[in-house]
Each structure stands twice: as C-alpha cells, then as structure tokens.
Amino acid sequence: MTGFGARLTAAVGARGALCVGIDPHPGLLDAWGLPLGVDGLERFAMTCVEALAGEVAVLKPQSAFFEAHGSRGVAVLERVIAESRAAGALVLVDAKRGDIGSTMAAYAQAYLADGSPLAGDAVTLSPYLGFGSLEPALVTAEATGRGVFVLALTSNPEGAQVQRAEQGGRSVAQAVVDAAAARNAGAEPLGPVGLVVGATLAETGVDLTGLNGAILAPGVGAQGAGPADLSRLFGGAGVVLPTSSRDVLRHGPDTAALREAALRLRDELVA
Ligand SMILES: O=C(O)c1cc(=O)[nH]c(=O)n1[C@@H]1O[C@H](COP(=O)(O)O)[C@@H](O)[C@H]1O
C-alpha cells in the first residue's frame, strides 16, 4: 500500500502544487444562475468536478456547504468524492473534525476507512481537544494510506487567541507542529500528517523545518493572500499546497473558464 505522503508527492509532481476548494456558497450558486436547493448544489459541485478533477492535484470539498442541505446534500458530497478520485484528483474532505478519542474513532471510520462513502484521500482535523485525541484518526490514516491535515495556524484573525497562546514558553501552534513532526518522523518521502497554516498570516512564528509532512495553505485569493505571501511564509519548506476556493469558483459556470482560472493560478504560484 502506498502511503498518503507518497501519493501526494506524486500528484503534486504530476499536476503541480494546487488545491482547489469546492465551496458551494449560496452566493456563488446564485451568480452561476443555479437554484439554491440541492439540485443547484449538485450541478455546481459536479461542474467543478468536470472542470477540475482531471487537472488539479487536490480538490477540497467543504463539507459544511453539503451538510447544509441535509442527507441529500451529503449524498452529493459522496458523489463528488467518488467522481473526483475516479478522474485522478486526490480528495481532501474539509470537515475539520475533532472530538474525544472514543468518538474520534467513529469520525475516523467515516472519513478515513476503506469502503466508507465519505472517505476521500485525506480529511481536515482540529487538534483543540488535544492532539492525542486524534489518535484513532492517525492510526486509521496510516493503515489505509490516507492522510490528515491538522489545524495549526488558521487563516482567520480569531485563530491567534488560541493558537498563539503559550504554554511553558512554547505556543500551542508549535506544540501541534511538534506532535505532527514526531508522528511523521522517518517516513519517506513524507508522513501522513499534514498541517494547515494560513497564507494570510503576517508571520508563522513556528519552526516547520522538521515537519516531514505537507502544509496546506488556505487564504489564497478571496482572503487576500497571493504568491508573494507563500514564498515569504514558506520559502524552503517542503511540500506546500496552496488552496483557493471562491477566487477560482467565481469563474464558473463555464467549465473551460473554471479550468483556465485554476491552471492560471497554479502557474502564477509556481512562478
Ligand atoms: O482547512 C481549511 O481548508 C481552512 C483552514 C483555514 O485556516 N482557513 C480556511 O479558510 N480554510 C478553508 O478554506 C476555504 C477558503 O475558501 P476561500 O476563502 O473562498 O478561498 C474554506 O472552505 C475554509 O473553510
């Protein structure tokens, strides 16, 4: 079985370092001329899959926008996961789960176990019930060749209140980085535990050099971050995966325009 670190490295090598978020905001459905119900959601999401899944390394459906439509919305998310993977993209399900260990085992089953319809290639996790509470997800990811992206420093300004707090001279974010690094130690070419570090930050204030895992960098485009921020924050760091949602999605519903917007962004970021 090929681990997530190797699969992500291969995907980025073949398709370039870009993740596009599938965030079906009601405002975007409206701008695309779609009805605001589950039919509009499905047409929006499947247009994204058709335009992007054959081209970009990683697609990141934002679970909240699917859950907002109840079980029929979740069924659309399942279809997005299956069809994106079939077209060759890795799927990072953005669900930001985190709970006590015994409940975390059920989330691990949902998002990381073979055969689950909600399992893509990776899932976003919140470590704020303690990094150790994520253990069932880490074990399942390792066993199934999947990955996790753990929130370290989020792109929103409110995150600093918790993430920059210090404990024994070390920030909470640095403790998350260190726990992820310990988990990834020795893995080749990269371990399965990635981190989320916002591209919008003035500075990271953490040492990422020993991570040996991927960094997902949200905030590109709609939240104001651009290529210069990525090199400023992460220059020299290993595999950095910038992610953008609204700034790409606003180019739909035309599939060619949507695809071109994603590829243009990818090329700008590489340059
Ligand atoms: O985990 C994430 O993807 C994430 C972490 C973070 O710190 N900030 C952040 O914006 N995100 C997600 O990334 C997407 C950003 O969307 P845009 O601002 O439209 O590019 C949303 O789905 C957010 O939930």
UniProtKB/TrEMBL annotation:
Keywords: Decarboxylase, Lyase, Pyrimidine biosynthesis. PROSITE patterns: OMPDECASE. CDD domains: OMP_decarboxylase_like. Residues 17-261 form the Orotidine 5'-phosphate decarboxylase domain. It holds the Pfam family OMPdecase. Its EC number is 4.1.1.23. InterPro entries: Aldolase_TIM, OMPdecase_AS, OMPdecase_type-2, OMPdeCOase_dom, RibuloseP-bd_barrel. The keyword Lyase applies. It comes from the Bacteria. It is an enzyme of class 4 (lyase). It catalyses: orotidine 5'-phosphate + H(+) = UMP + CO2. SMART domains: OMPdecase. The keyword Lyase applies. One of its GO terms (molecular function) is orotidine-5'-phosphate decarboxylase activity. The active site is at K96 (proton donor). Pathway: Pyrimidine metabolism; UMP biosynthesis via de novo pathway; UMP from orotate: step 2/2. PANTHER family: OROTIDINE 5'-PHOSPHATE DECARBOXYLASE. Belongs to the OMP decarboxylase family. Type 2 subfamily. This is Orotidine 5'-phosphate decarboxylase. It comes from Actinokineospora soli.
